[in-house]
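User: I'm new to structure prediction. If I give you an amino acid sequence, what do you actually give back? Let's try with this one:
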Amino acid sequence: MEIKIHARDLEITARAESYIQKKFDRLERHLSQISDAKIEVYRSSARSQANSVIAQMTLSTGKYTLRGQDSGVNLFAAVDAVTDVVDRQIRRLKGKVYRSSQSR
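Assistant: Good question. You get back a string of structure tokens that encode the predicted 3D arrangement of the chain. For your 104 residues, that looks like this:
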């Protein structure tokens, strides 16, 4: 799996990059057919500091593309939130695929 990390208005440290890699490893455990993974992290232009960092994650498998977006107070909170969103999508996708193949 190839992981692409893009940051706008933020600096990605080595600690943050290893944290993001660890989160992608968790997702890959649930869905091993991931061929391409992208995450884009940027600072919001809103005046509110409550959710100032936004993370967008896109995973590509053979037929499906899963995409999630969420925000958080800092980089780590935003990555956690978007990972949870995409993890729910993976579980829902695997359930649909399993049910459709079981009915045949």
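You can read the tokens as a compact description of the fold. Here is one thing that stands out. The two ends are 31 Å apart (CA to CA).
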